[in-house]
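Researcher: Please predict.
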Amino acid sequence: MTNDFLQIPLQSGLITSQKQLKRCSLNESVAGMMHLIIITHFGENKQDMSFGNELWEYDFETIDNIQAFKEKLSESLQKAIIQHEKRFTNVKVGIGFEQVLTTTNNRRVRQRIQINIEGTLRKTNESFTHQEVFFMGPLSYY
């Protein structure tokens, strides 16, 4: 597949020095956009206040009902992807939670969220899967 899409993050230094911006494939571009939607909270994008999802509303929160939270987050991500990633269709979002003992800095139990996004690329009609993993409170990803 050709590299017809701009790679994010854009490197503004290349623009000002009149060099070519880095390019990527359709799969890499869609994955980059999914990542951007997931890590952005509402209101962070000043040109489109609806860009992002509800995950950031719950950072540092005590989540009483995990199942309700998973459903709400899944719906928020699905809506955001349908609205902002037009190259992707048949969106299905799965959310998984797991308690993990972390040893970086301090030993503590943290909630790990696994986000699985499945669907179809419109242009090629190929199935596509994207996965992200985050820790809650403070929210961080790897």
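Model: The chain has a mean pLDDT of 83.
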